[in-house]
Amino acid sequence: MKKNLLLVVALFIASFASAQATATIIDDAPYNYEEVEVRPEFPGGNNELMNFIGKNFKIPDYEGSGGTLKIAFIIEIDGSITNVKVVKDLGDGTGAEAKRVISSSPRWSSGETRGKKVRVLYELPIKIASQG
After folding, report:
1. Tens digits of per-residue pLDDT, 50-107?
2. With helix as H, strand as E and coil as C, how does the chain read?
3. Which of 13, 27, 84, 103 could form a disulfide with 73 if both were Cys (CB 3.0 to 4.6 A apart)?
């Protein structure tokens, strides 16, 4: 009888611990930019973000006809940038350069939902003009 009771208690503790781990993973998942109540912002706003990209983006030897590349990244609760990924690349090193520039970004203001700071997934289009 004691063994059965001990087994039931052990199973209960294991299931409770498992549920806690799952909740933590879900709570840490980033919100989409459009879903948060207070959206994260680059220091100085969107115009300053465009200035930052314009100053720091060094166009590689790009042979293409121009277009829009997309970079996705997470703005953490402390405003730092992580998980920078190229969503749409134009080739010739443009995606790698955009990734480098965004990774060097200063801290943003954090996003908030229901009064709590949250991680936010942000997708940024960057237009590249034809070099020809």
Report:
1. 999 999 999 888 787 889 999 999 999 999 999 999 999 999 999 999 999 999 999 9
2. CHHHHHHHHHHHHHHHHHHHHHHHHHHHCCEEHHHCCECCECCCCHHHHHHHHHHHCCCCCCCCCCEEEEEEEEECCCCCEEEEEEEECCCCCHHHHHHHHHHCCCCCECEEECCEEECEEEEEEEEECCCC
3. 84
Q: Where are the domains of the chain?
A: 30-128
- CATH 3.90.1200 describes domain 30-128: no
pLDDT band at 132 (very low <50, low <70, confident <90, very high): low
